Amino acid sequence: MSLTADPPACTVPAAGGSSTHKLVNAGADKLIFKIKSSNNNEYRITPVFGFVDPSGSKDIVITRTAGAPKEDKLVIHFANAPADATDAQAALLLLLRL
User: Fold this and answer.
1) 57-78: pLDDT as tens digits
2) β-pairing verdict for 57-64 and 74-80
């Protein structure tokens, strides 16, 4: 199970801006992901939840609104997706209960 981000780091000015990244699944299983931020007031991530097909990729956009400069963190949680899952957010809630 492997999920990588390309580019692997996001640098957005404190004045605001956006950055596009590609989540790449190099494995043979469908993956499910959720992206978390240490600063939800100034960052918007689209999509927050999703699936990445085997040997596939998914584009994400990270947007920062203007705010005080500081170091923030984005974390991507991922796991093998349930075979019958069609709604990423609902599937993640089920996985968390296990």
Assistant:
1) 999 999 999 999 989 999 999 9
2) unpaired
